[in-house]
What does this fold into?
Amino acid sequence: MALTSHLRTVSSPTAAQPIKAGEADWYNEFYRSIQTEIPPWYRALIPDLVHGLTAQTKLLELGCGQGHVLRLLAREGKLPEANIWGIDQSQTAVDLVKQHLPAARLEAGDIYELTLPKQQFDVCLLMETIEHLEHPAPALRNIYEVLAPGGVLYLSFPNYLHLPWLVVRLLAERLNRPNWIVLQPIDKIYTVFAAKRMLREAGFVFERGFGSNFGPPVLYRWEQPWMTRLGNTLGLWWLSFHPVLKFRKPAGK
It folds into this structure.
């Protein structure tokens, strides 16, 4: 999760607080294990994402990790590597993605201090990252600045309206079992409603949501595509474990 930028237009006193060194160390260790499976939130994202891509689309992922979706987009010819940017606070993760995407713009950095041109990107991905930010508001303002007018932000996170996950999370903390859910250095609890409010306050307009993982968390590998489609068809995306929310920066902003 992380970045680098000259966007010093943020006035909040928390905006200039960098990611702490201990956090980067934790993620460097975490990403030493190669993750071969595309996570469910990316699988839920891909159909809507690729529908709006063109060869000219400039895409940025913040908190790109091992670059699962970035690598897939390049491999399947959905985007040229030169139009792909990725930033994470883990140098280990970034080095891995560079091996697969040598022509992409990849770097280790701090999401609070982006070194990216304003109004540069058509799409930004913030997947399973916002819950790990101590101060999400200045990070969201930075994202708003680097998105072009009319640009899209996709957001995903563990949704605590999904009651089975809430129970597991509370038990993991109460019983001191962080390995049950891979508790990270910063691991906040959000709901769909809280996320929509944060993004609205940052200036984004909510467009739609779609869910992934409608069943118990431990069974996510066995959730069939038809189950996911059914949950979304019934409009229950906001109760899923890993919803994907689509926001847009208003045109002319």
About this structure: The two ends are 26 Å apart (CA to CA). Residues 85 and 105 are 5 Å apart (CA to CA).
